[in-house]
């Protein structure tokens, strides 16, 4: 096999084996408090095994072309921008100078 075909076979094998391996490693039993550490990438297992990220992308009710125009969109006038940053009366930082 040439290099491209071997890369395709490798990626396809990884993709097809990811879901069965994720189902083979169940997430922690969170209903038992204090026993599991929640630091062993169970969120990744749940993301792979759940179908939350899979969605239907077909448009159910196509709108069609827009046939009416309400008016032209005019550019707004020039805006003046202050060279100084906006001041805040209450900050979380310490005072910049002592009075």
What is the topological layout?
Layout (H helix, E strand, L loop, with lengths): L2 H22 L17 H8 L50
Helix pairs in contact: 1-2
Q: Could you explain the architecture of this structure?
A:
By secondary structure, the chain is an all-alpha fold. It has a domain at 3-49. It has two helices and no strands. The protein has helices at residues 3-24, 42-49. It is 30% helix and 0% strand. The model has no long low-confidence stretch (mean pLDDT 73).
Oligomer: single chain
H/I helix tally:
2
The residue-averaged pLDDT reads: 73
Model regions low in confidence, pLDDT < 50 over at least 5 residues: none
Order of helices and strands: HH
What is the tally of beta strands?
A: 0
The SS-based structural class is mainly alpha
Concise overview:
With 99 residues, this protein is mostly helical.
Question: What tags apply to this protein structure?
Answer:
single chain; 99 residues; mainly alpha; 2 helices
């Amino acid at each position: 096999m040439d290099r491209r075909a071997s890369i395709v076979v490798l990626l396809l094998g990884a993709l097809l084996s990811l879901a069965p391996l994720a189902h083979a490693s169940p997430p922690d039993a969170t209903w038992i408090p204090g026993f599991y550490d929640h630091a062993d990438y169970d969120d990744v297992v749940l993301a792979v095994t759940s179908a939350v990220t899979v969605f239907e992308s077909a448009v159910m009710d196509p709108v069609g072309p827009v046939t009416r125009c309400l008016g032209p969109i005019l550019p707004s006038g020039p805006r003046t921008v202050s060279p100084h940053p906006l001041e805040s009366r209450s900050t979380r930082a310490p005072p910049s100078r002592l009075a």
